[in-house]
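Q: What changes when zinc ion is included in the input?
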Amino acid sequence: MASQDVETVTTALATEAAPDAKTRRYDRQLRLWAASGQNALESSRILVISGSATSTSILKNLVLPGIGHFTIIDPNQVTPEDAGNNFFLEGPSSIGKSRAEEAVRLLLELNDGVDGKADVRSLEHVLENSKEWLSEFTIVIAHNLEAALLEQLASLLWADESYTPLVVVRSAGFLAEVYIQYHEHAVIESHPETPQSLHIDKAFPSLLEYSTSLDFENMDVTDHGHVPYVVILVRVLEDWKKTHNGSPPLSYEEKQEFKKAIFAMRKKSDEENFDEAVAQAYRAWAKTSVPSDISALFEDEKVRSLSPTSPPFFHLLHALQRFATEQPSHALPLTSALPDMKASTESYIHLQTLYKAHAEEEKAIFKSYLQVPVEDDIVDAFVKNSHALRLQKGKKWGTLDADPASLAAALETAPKALAIHLALTVLSSYVAKQPADVPLSPTAEALTAEALTLLPPGTELPDEFDEALGEVVRAPTADLPNTAALLGGIVAQEVIKMITKQYIPINGSCLIDLIETWTGIL
Amino acid sequence: MASQENGTSASADWPGRYHHIDQVLNTPGPRTDPGFLAGDGVKDFLRNQAKILVIGAGGLGCEILANLALTGFKDIHVIDMDTIDISNLNRQFLFRQKDVGYPKATVAAEFIMKRVPGVKVTPYFGKIQDKDDEYYMQFNLVICGLDSVEARRWMNATLVNLVDPENPDSLKPMIDGGTEGFKGQARVILPTITSCYECSLDMFNKPTAFPICTIANTPRLPEHCIEWASVLEWPRVHGEKKMDTDDPEHIGWLYKIASARAAEFNIEGVTWSLTQGVVKNIIPAIASTNAVIAAACCNEAFKIATSSAAFLDNYFMLIGTDGVYSYTFTHKKRDDCPVCGGEALEMTISPEMTVEELIETLTEKQDIQIKKPSLSTSAPTKQIYLQAPPQLEKATRPNLEKKVKEFVQEGGEITVTASTLPFNLSLRISYSTPA
Ligand SMILES: [Zn+2]
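A: The predicted holo structure follows.
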């Protein structure tokens, strides 16, 4: 066919037009969270408390990917110190102006699609007079908020399960902490690294029928070298089970024997599909069942006491449990995702069609178990990711510090992470006790004494604590540009995961030590 | 130059400017090296003497430049050969819509100088290979924020070759960052002392390459159809005309041809976005990961320049898809590293292997990855196969079909060179005994 003809014939097949400017701008991120994630970002409203260097670094990484709206609440004027470490202030010319207004103006230059607002009220004022205003936001972020005010804010936002999540960010010099306060965070699209089972050990009827119908011995040599490994494995397993009381290979010897049986089927020594079958042979004896992480979700109180008003996630979980219990496979629904494998186009596409058809059947059964209507897109995503669902349960900010026994236990299991957390905690309680407008000069002795009051009597503080404490004493109010930039990245990443409900956010605290370039979780 | 009060001399400095940074420069911490001289001396070095080179003004580069400027580096140079594209604007925050089409290095430098008073950023719009040793010798530190393995290898080898044991100033620490989606890494390389970029080449995955026979005969995935359109159909239909992956008309043509191929074979999933992704080998990139990695790199630069804290030994890896997971470790130097190791790389091949097959192996081997290698022996000097110039390529071409053992004995060495790399690789060949 001449190229002109090709083009005429094919124009009808390629139905998409070239992407618009917005799609082109966001191309590199759409490949991570797709249009669904982008829509969630564009509908989000973020409140950031303070216009510090860290706060503007966080916002920069949220404005660029295109959140809907942000507000900076900050009653302060830009000081000479602020003008030196904050990229979203214009050096000396910003000094004396509203820090919120300057930062908002410069952040908005990054993206025309984002709306931003400066609020020069104090947070105290808001908490006293119009705390319902906080419910306008998807997420609230607070950097180095004074301890008592932070506690007040955290308690307020914790009061009801439906309230806004709070991201607590603290830093001093080379050390930092990020905590997300949420009651519960459910993730369907966790983007797992491991794909779903191919159900080779529990081959569905059409796959089994196809596999056993093939006459390997009398097959044309070329065709023989292009049978997909999935089909080979199903066949070898079926034959194996006939001579082994219906069991798959179990012992090491049996597994080796099973592999030999695959090799014995080769017509030529260089048939790559048989090499693949041997390499993938574990799929024949790896039992396809409901992963324990997933069956644990079935025990969740909200699944057990399901009502028509329960969130869709729990309805979906309930249907999944019924599917796994009532369907003969006792497994999660099949998905149609077939990896690439050595095969001819026809045999691969045929196999893919079998998978797709059966996956559709199982999805229909799954849907029939749903007690409330759920959007198709969500059902599709749920089934596709049913092996990697996540339901994280959070705690109120400050829970750890209120429990000496937990602190002591963490000091044993995660000394470095806890040391950083504790150092930042005692620093902020010290700051809270100092009169404003007096330069801070905490001493290691005073802060250590403060730390000991949080711990069970007689606790010995490890070297890690002295190391962390020395840093906060050295730089109690330093919002270092590099620390701010790193926090800007980490916090924005976690906020994006929270908003898009894709990928998995931290559960608890992330501690950062930029001396050893180390992070840990508490 | 006499150091003035506060260790600064630039008139743009205002009282309080370095309030935050000075807290860690005025006082050592518990883990600070005893050699750290807190106070004016270190500030003067950072603000008035240190000269730093940034390679790349893209996703990492924009972040790196801003961080360096805020931490007090005042003499910054930046090299980048690219111009600004609309798809950069979701993360390269020094650029605006109006800057599309202009050189990244220049626009970034101007922005930094406008935003951070008193900082001088000198841009170079071009390739790192345009610059010679003398140019690289002027810097105290080099930070790389690149997306190309090739460029990193070149920079790494150049800085290793620059080291003169007699001259301590010739050792330029190289800080290297890289990101892909929610993942990234930052590392510190002290040329000849620590593991270098080449030492760790096997840690980085090569982009997936599909075998030509699959593309031509047994397509199964939409990607196979796209490769068919770009690798086979484009040259067949357009002849000499070069494909421009930034030209929407070219992408549109490939998308159309790939869609037709897919329809013919009942393959689903060819989209515009996938077509572009495959032909441009697009790696997902976001502002947040770049911010983390660039900050880690700049923090190392700051610590090295000031000794205010120990620097990273030597590798930091971040995975942000499931919580925040990171791993900090010492990557070990490789004795047979072709750049910093000095020992020949041992390679066992079949006595039947031809020169052409050896070349293919070298291209594919994870720890070598040499595009278009030329081969020769050193004792005695004999050319086995040369990729260029054309006369020599032609003269040595018949050798491709010959067996390697016709040129090298057991235990003999082959020197491998490639125009893209500023170093030679020595292979010591052993022959496997036939089965
Ligand atoms: Zn090396």
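Observations recorded in class: Chain A touches chain B through 96 residues (CB under 8 Å).
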